[in-house]
């Protein structure tokens, strides 16, 4: 079960580590396993045991152990990986953001580095990314607390050499649309807006109006 993802643990190599907890059976380095969310087969290679800043290769692990896997961007928090069987562990809860900022792209010189940094940090769960179809795909960031934006700015500056400029938005509520949803059902309003999350799901954000 993938419960954490951490980027740039080794800044010199821009690595990305997915932490998995062994829940049953026996982990063996190099074994073929099924990534349940995509249905694809993957080889569990480049496995690492991390202790503080130290690392060492690990060839086998047992229930309760935590192993780090090198991840090129394929894994996500909440993924289930199994060598046999067709089950999934329940997803970890995702808290709806209550603070929103718009990224001022016009003030960013390193856009590719910015996008890479935002994508990786969003996979860690540090922030949530939304796109605004009315704003030519403008990027909106959501967080549970305002301190997350300060942490985001610091990490982008130190790890990706990008100075992030943000402008505050007045929205404080976000709700994911479920069932048969038609975007045209959402009328234009100053108090609410329809945006899309990183996988394309519609999300209604509002100024304190609980949907």
Secondary structure blueprint with pairings:
Blueprint: E1 2-7, E2 16-21, E3 27-28, E4 32-35, E5 40-43, E6 47-51, E7 54-57, E8 60-61, E9 66-70, E10 81-82, E11 99-103, H1 111-124, E12 128-132, E13 138-143, H2 147-159, E14 166-168, E15 173-176, E16 192-196, E17 202-206
Structure overview:
This protein has 211 residues and is mainly beta. 13% of the residues lie in helices and 35% in strands. The protein has helices at residues 111-124, 147-159, and strands spanning 2-7, 16-21, 27-28, 32-35, 40-43, 47-51, 54-57, 60-61, 66-70, 81-82, 99-103, 128-132, 138-143, 166-168, 173-176, 192-196, 202-206. It has a five-stranded antiparallel β-sheet with strand order 1-2-9-6-7. The chain has a four-stranded antiparallel β-sheet with strand order 12-13-11-14, with helices on one face. Strand 16 (192-196) and strand 17 form a beta hairpin. The model has no long low-confidence stretch (mean pLDDT 83).
Summarize the structure.
This protein is mainly beta and 211 residues long. The protein has helices at residues 111-124, 147-159; strands spanning 2-7, 16-21, 27-28, 32-35, 40-43, 47-51, 54-57, 60-61, 66-70, 81-82, 99-103, 128-132, 138-143, 166-168, 173-176, 192-196, 202-206. The strands form 5 sheets. A 5-stranded antiparallel sheet has the order 1-2-9-6-7. Strands 12-13-11-14 form a 4-stranded antiparallel sheet, with helices on one face. Strands 5-4-10 form a 3-stranded antiparallel sheet, with no helix packed on it.
């Amino acid at each position: 079960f993938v419960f954490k993802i951490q980027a740039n643990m080794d800044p010199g190599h821009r690595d990305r580590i997915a932490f998995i907890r062994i829940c049953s059976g026996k982990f063996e380095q190099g074994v073929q396993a099924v990534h349940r969310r995509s249905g694809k087969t993957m080889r569990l290679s480049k496995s690492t045991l991390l202790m503080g800043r130290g690392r060492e290769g690990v060839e086998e692990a047992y229930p309760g152990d935590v192993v780090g896997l090198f991840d090129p961007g394929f894994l996500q928090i909440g993924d289930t990986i199994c060598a046999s069987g067709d089950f999934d562990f329940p997803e970890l809860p995702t808290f709806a953001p209550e603070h929103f900022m718009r990224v001022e792209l016009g003030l960013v010189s390193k856009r590719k580095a910015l996008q890479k940094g935002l994508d990786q940090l969003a996979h860690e769960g540090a922030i949530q990314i939304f796109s605004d179809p009315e704003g030519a795909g403008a990027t909106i960031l959501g967080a549970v607390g305002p301190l997350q934006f300060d942490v985001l700015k610091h990490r982008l500056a130190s790890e990706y050499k990008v100075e992030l400029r943000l402008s505050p938005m007045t929205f404080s509520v976000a709700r994911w649309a479920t069932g048969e949803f038609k975007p045209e059902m959402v009328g234009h309003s100053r108090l609410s807006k329809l945006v899309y999350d990183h996988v394309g799901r519609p999300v209604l954000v509002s100024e304190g109006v609980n949907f």
